[in-house]
Design goal:
The complex is a heterodimer of chains A (500) and B (209). Chain A is of the alpha+beta class and 500 residues long. Chain A is built from eleven helices and 25 strands. Chain B has 209 residues and is mainly alpha-helical. Chain B has one domain. In chain B, helix 3 runs parallel beside helix 6 and helix 5 runs antiparallel to helix 7. Classes of the chains: A alpha+beta (500), B mainly alpha (209).
């Protein structure tokens, strides 16, 4: 009787648990299903691993919110709580708040007669000065914080650009010292650099020409003049977009490389220091090229059109091929990937630019086919993940540890979290624990570091004991041997005596 | 002697790997080796490679433990061993080598021993060193293979009573012969599978009529 009762009760409990678990699961599945995209990251082995959403699509800023419709916009910039949109097709710059309420509009430069013509780039300095790459008019225009015209920087005065070459700046950034960097159509010598006073300074961060050894030898030693002429001239790559970070380093993306170049390991993201040298850290087990699966099939490479960096070295790259946003940490580890091109609400058609709000709470993505801005809000998981990296960067090891532990609650696959916790344990001197975390995070470099300390610790603890034990054993053996020999000696004497 | 004569071929391997010219000569002339010992050394090589894959410390183990397949080592070692011996026997019979198939099998088996001798302790070593000291580890690994290769070369020279230059030539030809055997083998495998498909299709056709 009692047994039956127990059985009944446990059955009921199991049923209840099943219903509960089922409920939670369907709820989780619904949240996933609501989002028109998956979120994943790449693990040490280069595999896609699904993970909780870091950003959720929340709303769209379209003509309804803006009060007038965009026409083929190209660039989006965010400073404080303002959005600056380069509305190329309508030849204007729009300034809105985060809800899309139009605050002001810039349509002309010096006087109403001097209208902007298809501007493709907009940048705002910390002081609020607005720089516009006025593509159609071949100039860069500076405005003050109220939209008042300050100056116009025209075609660079140099013999380095042929007279026949059209000069059309498409993107512009200004660093803390006031130096102006621009990308211009058809100029493949790097970024065009102007001094703060607007004088042409030269080209910066020229993309390395990628010529294979075979190509070089063939072209220089084995082909005739006629062949050389017929051969396609090898031109260096152009940048697709630039972003100046808080240290005045410039992040640049490249998206016009051939499949062969990409397969050959050409870099598509750079971080240029003020002298134009690429200093992007590439310490992950895989290259920073967006989706890795494409390397297996040799097609469908991610095509980076915009980049935005945080103050602590993480950066977000926008890919217009699949409509994805790739987030990396400052070592080049994949943090998360989200977004998709498609027709559902929250999908992109042709994303062109992204902007990240303070503390990465919101990501705005401008789409030039939908003619609207898609807004993504950070989730708890995302804020713990980015928060952990931010706190670690600020030197707040304790806070960082807490955040990593939260991250692990959401995603036990997070190698980043294991490595983060490992680093904390390493600084706290818990070497054994650190080693375990680094092994889970597949990080041999830090594991080696932790192991070297752990080994030293073991040696210090056991070396004296080991030496003493060895000495005692040695002494004992020696004594026993000596004793035996002694006995033999006694025996020999006795033998000698007896034989005598 | 306490151990008697049966253990002798096993102990003799240490003499062979340290004095290869003398060792391989006596291995054949004086019948100091045995096929059983040689096969044991091949088996030990397989074991070593398997243990190495699974037991090497995290720092020096690039393998994903959940995806290790010991059969891969078993098949690789046996295939390479048999393929080399067969190809070597084929070429040397045409180039008046003095070694019989059994002699080749024994000599190559003995020549693999440095892999066991060095790589097994390396597994232990990997657990006490860090990445900065890895150069020693990788150097040892290189030595183990270089030693074994040099021994295979000496074994060929001594077993067939060749000069140095002729041995180099024979070894090159043997490698090419291995390639040809592999090619013919794959071709044969393909044809067989085609035939099987054909026969089964015909059988199905007839059955369904």
């Amino acid at each position: 009787m009692g047994y039956q009762k127990l059985l009944c009760r446990s059955l009921a409990a199991a049923l209840a648990a099943g219903v509960l678990v089922g409920g939670v699961l369907t709820e989780a599945a619904e949240v996933r299903a609501e989002m028109p995209y998956d979120t994943y990251s790449y693990n040490y082995w280069g595999e896609e691993v699904q993970e909780p959403h870091s950003y959720l699509y929340s709303r769209t800023i379209s003509s309804k919110e803006l009060g007038s419709s965009l026409n083929y916009p190209s660039d989006l910039f965010l400073r404080d709580d303002r959005l600056y949109i380069a509305d190329t097709g309508n030849s204007r710059i729009l300034i809105t708040d985060f809800s899309g309420n139009l605050l002001s509009e810039i349509t002309y430069a010096d006087g109403e007669a001097d209208r902007l013509k298809e501007p493709q780039g907009v940048f705002v300095t910390k002081e609020g000065h607005i720089y516009v790459a006025d593509t159609g008019n071949g100039r860069i225009v500076e405005y003050d914080e109220n939209g008042g015209f300050i100056r116009s920087i025209g075609r660079p005065v140099t013999t380095l650009i042929a007279d026949s070459q059209v000069y059309s700046p498409t993107r512009v950034v200004v660093d803390g010292a006031g130096r102006i960097y621009a990308i211009a159509y058809g100029i493949n010598m790097g970024l065009v650099e102007f001094s703060a006073s607007g004088d042409f300074q030269g080209f910066m961060g020229a993309a390395r020409v990628s010529v294979s050894m075979f190509e070089y030898i063939w072209k220089n030693y084995f082909s005739t003049e006629a062949q050389k002429q017929r051969m396609e001239t090898i031109i260096p790559t152009e940048y697709s977009n630039i972003f100046a970070d808080n240290e005045d380093f410039i992040y640049a993306t490249i998206n016009n490389l051939s499949d062969e170049d990409l397969a050959g390991g050409a870099d598509v993201v750079r971080r240029l220091n003020p002298t134009g040298v690429d200093v992007l850290r590439r310490l992950a087990a895989y290259p920073i090229i967006g989706d890795l699966a494409s390397t297996t099939y040799g097609y469908d490479w991610s095509s980076f059109v915009d980049i935005a960096a945080t103050d602590y070295g993480c950066y977000f790259i926008l890919d217009d091929e699949d409509g994805k946003i790739f987030a990396y940490d400052n070592d080049g580890n994949s943090l998360f990937v989200f977004g998709r091109n498609g027709v559902r609400e929250g999908n992109f058609q042709k994303p062109v630019s992204l902007a990240v709000a303070d503390e990465e709470k919101t990501i705005f993505v401008l789409d030039n086919t939908l003619n609207s801005i898609l807004v993504f809000d950070i989730t708890d998981y995302g804020s713990h993940l980015l928060g952990a990296i931010r706190k670690n960067n600020l030197g707040d090891a304790e806070g960082s540890t807490r955040e990593w532990q939260e991250v692990l609650k959401y995603n036990s696959n997070s190698e980043m979290a294991y490595i983060g916790l490992g680093k904390t344990n390493l600084t706290e001197g818990k070497y054994k624990e650190a080693m375990e975390y680094f092994e889970l995070g597949n990080n041999r470099k830090y594991y080696s570091k932790a192991f070297s300390y752990y080994r030293k610790e073991l040696m210090e603890r056991y070396l004296t004991k080991f030496v003493i034990t060895a000495a005692v054993v040695f002494l004992a053996v020696w004594l026993v041997k000596k004793g035996l020999r002694g006995r033999r000696w006694v025996g020999e004497i006795r033998c000698y005596m007896e034989n005598r | 002697m306490l151990h008697g004569k049966s253990l002798d071929p096993y102990k003799y391997v240490f003499h062979v790997i340290l004095h290869p010219i003398d060792g391989f000569w006596d291995l054949k002339r004086e019948k100091r080796g045995s096929l059983g010992a040689a096969l044991l050394f091949v088996a030990l090589t397989i074991l070593t490679l398997a243990v190495e894959k699974m037991g090497t410390a995290f720092l020096f183990n690039p393998n994903r433990l959940s995806e290790i397949n010991v059969m891969v080592d078993v098949i690789t070692v046996i295939l390479v061993y048999v393929l080399w011996c067969v190809a070597n026997w084929c070429t040397t019979s045409l180039m008046d080598g003095k070694g019989k198939m059994k002699d080749i099998l024994i000599a190559v088996g003995y020549a693999l021993f440095p892999i066991v001798l060095i790589r097994l302790p390396m597994v232990l070593l990997s657990h006490v060193i860090i990445l900065d000291e890895g150069a020693f580890y990788y150097m040892l690994g290189f030595i183990s293979y270089a030693w074994a290769l040099a021994l295979v070369f000496t074994a060929t020279m001594m077993t067939h009573e060749y000069t140095l230059s002729k041995t180099v030539f024979t070894c090159a030809i043997t490698v090419i012969a291995m390639g040809i055997i592999l090619f013919i083998g794959l071709l044969f495998f393909n044809v067989i599978s085609e035939i099987i498909t054909f026969v089964s299709t015909v059988y199905k056709e007839i059955r369904f009529r």
